[in-house]
Amino acid sequence: MTTYRIALIPGDGIGVPVVDAAWTVLERAASRHGFQLSATRFPWSCDFYRETGAMMPADGIETLRGFDAILLGAVGWPAAVPDAVSLHGLLLPIRKAFRQYANIRPHQLLPGVEGPLRKEGFDILCIRENTEGEYSGAGGRVHVGTPDEVAVETAVFTRVGVERILRFGFEQARARRGKLASVTKSNAQKHTMVFWDEMTTVIAAEYPDVEVTPYHIDAMAARMVMAPDTLDVVVASNLFGDILTDLGAAIQGGLGFAASANINPDRTAPSMFEPVHGSAPDIAHLGIANPIATIWSGAMMLEHLGEREAGAAVMRAVEAATAKGIGTRPGQDRTDTIANAVLQALG
Ligand code: GGG
Fold first, then answer.
1. Same structural domain for residues 161 and 234?
2. Among 199, 258, 313, 316, which is least packed, fewest CB within 10 Å?
3. Domain Isopropylmalate dehydrogenase-like: where (predicted)?
4. Which atom of ligand 1 is nearest to the CA of 11?
């Protein structure tokens, strides 16, 4: 029987209960579909930082390299560790080291979920560049604490990085409804974003069957709310993709329903699966975190591992649970109630 080795990094706050809940569902799916999942749990988090001075050990990346995939919960506990330190100490280095350059975020409606922005038929796939752009970490501060203080954050867009994420976006569009929206702010950002637009035109020549439309980020935000049915695949830089996918989550009904996959398309290192939401310190100890985004991310992991039918079964079980109204409104059901409803539907 095939056994997949999965690294679990629950992280901080609600990351812990949602990963635990998702794991029960994924194990059940494995047993029903004739394969095994073997978990190794890593306590890398802001608590770990407080104990050791780092978000993960110096050999953390090498340790993770031996796994088939990584399932991560949430990173951040701002009361103890500045968010920029926790993000740049764990999540971002993993994405970069393992060349997980494509962050895939599906936005589809689950039955029974309501929300003020919900639009029937909302079904888009956001592809976020995941290893460079505005999150490069390059920059600095001078004259700190003086009236002359200056902070510079450098957005890094390489030809390799932009080409490969655009090509990935075109491939996804080709496999779906054949439409790609390429998002920039090239009227205002005249170097990086004009470069992105130019590369979009270059790569588009390889995909004559895909209809590509450039949008500015502000227009795209409005379009996602006002006319989402005109969109199919949306490709954007690291920052713009991060922002647009929180909006996508809101249209779905909330961050509790937004799944994501950090994919290394070349399969030279493990890919990482995580809910879009963060650690939510305000509800972290209440037992009401919605595990659906993590279960959905786990379903994407199963599909990535080649267990397509198991992943589809997990998603059918999620839909069966939400169709009964379980987990459809923030704070309405407890984490274990939602996970049990999915388990029951899974059989
Ligand atoms: N579930 C992952 C998580 O904790 N996300 C928090 C966050 O701020 N992420 C930023 C990012 O995805 O780049």
1. yes
2. 316
3. 5-342
4. 4
Report the residue among 14, 19, 83, 87 best suited for mutation to probe ligand 1: largest number of ligand atoms under 8 A from its CB: 87
| φ and ψ at residue 108, rounded to 5 degrees | -135, 160
Domain termination site, one of 229, 252, 275: 252
Summarised one tens digit per residue, pLDDT across range 162-201 is 999 999 999 999 999 999 999 999 999 999 999 999 999 9
Kindly give the distance from the C-alpha atom of residue 164 to the centroid of ligand 1, in angstroms, as a whole number.
22
135 belongs to the catalytic site: yes
Reading the block at residue 315, the tokens are 């998603």
Tell me what ipTM this predicted complex has: 0.91
**Bridge pairing between strands 211-216 and 179-184:** parallel
316 Cα: distance to centroid of ligand 1 (angstroms):
26
72 C-alpha vs ligand 1 centroid, how far in Å?
Answer: 10
Q: How many CB atoms lie within 10 A of CB 176?
A: 15
Entry pTM: 0.96
Token couple for 237: 């830089």
Domain tally for the chain? 2
CB atoms within 10 A of CB 266: 9
CA 346 from centroid of its chain's CA atoms: 24
Q: What is the pLDDT of residues 91-142, one digit of tens each?
A: 999 999 999 999 999 999 999 998 889 888 899 999 999 999 999 999 999 9
